[in-house]
Write a sequence for this structure.
């Protein structure tokens, strides 16, 4: 068996693609079905194209709600503090800051949780060490 992809349904493909591009993923391919009225967009981190995220956009949907029943996607990052700072600078809320230098949680525009994990632990660093949680993760 081999992991292929994780599928999430999205309301705004452009906003969701922009979010994942901030994390470092790139679009690999896209399929639009006029007859089925949907789009499939596949993204992956450069060099790790076998671990894909499939964004499914149903053209006529009216919203998916919180998406908490999904769980989360998880990505290992090179530097948790730099990644969170880049996301925060772009307006992304850090729901669970990397106070421990190891783990953080953010959410996509459709409220899908994304866990960011540092390989190992970086020493605690401000402002992260004293930053409170801002929501569910």
């Amino acid at each position: 068996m081999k992991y292929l992809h994780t599928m999430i349904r999205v309301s705004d493909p452009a906003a969701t693609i922009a979010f994942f591009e901030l994390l470092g993923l790139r679009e690999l391919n896209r399929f639009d079905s006029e007859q089925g009225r949907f789009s499939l967009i596949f993204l992956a981190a450069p060099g790790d194209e076998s671990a894909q995220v499939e964004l499914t956009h149903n053209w006529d949907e009216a919203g998916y709600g919180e998406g908490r029943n999904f769980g989360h996607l998880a990505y290992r990052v090179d530097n948790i503090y730099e990644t969170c700072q880049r996301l925060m600078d772009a307006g992304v809320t850090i729901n669970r800051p990397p106070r421990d230098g190891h783990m953080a949680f953010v959410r996509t525009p459709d409220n899908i949780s994304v866990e960011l994990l540092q390989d190992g632990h970086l020493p605690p660093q401000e402002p992260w060490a004293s930053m409170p949680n801002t929501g569910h993760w």
About this structure: The two ends are 29 Å apart (CA to CA).
